[in-house]
């Protein structure tokens, strides 16, 4: 076996030693040798090695080197192995393979196999133990094979006897066996029918009245609920293979919106799917509902508003919309930029904000896209699409946080806002009366925000994983708010 000796290198003063036990190779003396680093740990490089039992196993390269060279300590980056412990076949030569490197390179799957160290004290004892262990293993394998053959012979004899006996009885009992077989088949069919999930009661069967439905879902009547289900069926027809019907999926979505239950709780409540499947169903249904319920949030004309004007707006007949920002608490994000955008100094926590517009009659007529809690009311108003909906001469009613006088003046809108006290000790009589009237009129948007927050998914702190769905969730909630009974009673409107 030819070991790794090559043409001499240039002389150098490097004092690199071979780390193998009883090997005295030094780099500045043995110029015809090459010195190699150990493989790096966790390199995910494996080599095939024949173990002491003669079986080939795949081992980590560093472990294979350490085992072959009997390295009894942790391998460091300064340790080297000389080429005396490798065969020449383990190297790639530039002249043979026409490679770009100049010197001989060790192959990736090379493992030390020459001049390996032996422990002089225990080597003979270990060799004898290994031989004895190998003999015992071979004897066990022979005994197992002989027992297996005997067992197979017995089984074959029993099968032959059984087949012979069955052939003798077959002609006499054909009719009786066929009757038994039919009886067993019919009994099995009945058992399958009993185990069917169709007999399990659905959750909606426990909701006996409109008030119970409203408590769990926020939808005030079964008529509205069935209308929403029919709308979804037009887009997503019933699937016979699905575990839940469209009705159950819509119900599950609204229970999640109203109660903000965990997906694990929903999986127990609806009894047919896992928590992961409930999460997927909720996401799919939110996409569908937000897309098709947006029509329930219309922008009414001036004629419609004037025909449905409450008595508290008698002094503000030119008001087209009442504006307010709805804050929704969200969990702290791990992303630093998201933390900066969502932190509200006014609230002292992390929030997202929507600009909501309510008609004088109390219906939601406008919702903006979500903004971080850092954004001001003025900035949200300027960036929203509301400026494309308002016409010159329209009035908007806002609270003191909306400093939009300049923008209203440029576009010809009228801004109705409670007066500021500034440096005064108290309001004048006219300012106090105006503040009282505006507060009386703006109470409707406060009540609408209260109804929106009754849906616990936005009334409590929203998880980070639901923030990407926040705009669609808020759209579904506002549309459902408009489908329910109005805030104001008929007697509170101005009779035209």
Automatic annotation (TrEMBL):
PROSITE patterns: ZF_THAP (PS50950). Coiled coil: none annotated. Its cofactor is a divalent metal cation. InterPro entries: HARBI1_dom, THAP_Znf, Transposase_HTH_dom. The keyword Zinc applies. Keywords: DNA-binding, Metal-binding, Zinc, Zinc-finger. Residues 14-115 form the THAP-type domain. This is THAP-type domain-containing protein.
């Amino acid at each position: 076996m030819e070991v790794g000796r090559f043409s001499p290198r240039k002389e150098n003063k490097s004092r690199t030693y071979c780390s193998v036990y009883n090997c005295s190779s030094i780099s500045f003396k043995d110029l015809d040798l090459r010195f190699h680093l150990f493989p790096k740990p966790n390199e995910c490089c494996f080599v095939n090695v024949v173990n002491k039992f003669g079986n080939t196993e795949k081992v980590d390269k560093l472990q294979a080197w350490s085992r072959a060279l009997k390295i009894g300590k942790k391998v460091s980056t300064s340790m080297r192995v000389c080429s005396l412990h490798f065969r020449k076949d383990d190297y790639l030569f530039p002249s043979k393979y026409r490679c770009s490197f100049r010197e001989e390179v060790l192959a990736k799957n090379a493992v030390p196999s020459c001049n390996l160290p032996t422990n002089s004290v225990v080597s003979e004892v270990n060799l004898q133990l290994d031989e004895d262990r190998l003999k015992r293993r071979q004897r066990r394998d022979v005994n197992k094979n002989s027992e297996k053959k005997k067992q197979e012979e017995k089984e074959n004899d029993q099968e032959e006897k059984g087949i012979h006996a069955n052939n003798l009885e077959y002609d006499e009992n054909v009719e009786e066996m066929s009757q038994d077989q039919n009886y067993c088949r019919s009994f099995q069919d009945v058992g399958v029918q009993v185990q069917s999930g169709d007999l399990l009661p659905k959750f909606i069967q426990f909701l006996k009245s409109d008030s119970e439905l409203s408590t769990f879902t926020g939808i005030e009547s079964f008529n509205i609920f069935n209308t929403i289900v029919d709308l979804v069926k037009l887009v997503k027809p019933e699937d016979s293979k699905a575990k839940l019907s469209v009705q159950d999926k819509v119900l599950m979505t609204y229970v999640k919106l109203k109660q903000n239950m965990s997906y694990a709780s929903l999986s127990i409540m609806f009894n047919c799917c896992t928590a992961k499947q409930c999460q997927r169903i909720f996401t799919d249904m939110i996409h569908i509902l937000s897309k098709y319920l947006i029509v329930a949030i219309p922008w009414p004309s001036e004629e419609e508003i004037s025909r449905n004007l409450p008595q508290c707006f008698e002094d503000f007949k030119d008001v087209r919309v009442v504006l307010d920002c709805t804050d929704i608490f969200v969990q702290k994000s791990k992303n630093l930029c998201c933390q900066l955008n969502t932190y509200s100094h006014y609230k002292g926590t992390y929030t997202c904000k929507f600009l909501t517009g309510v008609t004088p009659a109390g219906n939601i007529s406008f919702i903006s896209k979500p903004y971080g809690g850092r954004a001001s009311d003025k900035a949200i108003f300027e960036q929203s699409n509301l400026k494309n909906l308002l016409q010159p001469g329209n009035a908007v009613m806002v609270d003191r946080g909306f400093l939009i006088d300049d923008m209203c003046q440029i576009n010809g809108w009228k801004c109705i806002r409670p007066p500021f006290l500034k440096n005064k000790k108290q309001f004048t009589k006219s300012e106090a009366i105006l503040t009282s009237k505006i507060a009386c009129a703006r109470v409707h948007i406060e009540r609408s925000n209260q109804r929106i927050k009754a849906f616990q998914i936005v009334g409590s702190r929203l998880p980070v994983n639901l923030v990407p769905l926040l705009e669609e969730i808020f759209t579904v909630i506002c549309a459902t708010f408009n489908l329910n009974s109005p805030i104001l009673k008929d007697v509170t409107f101005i009779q035209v």
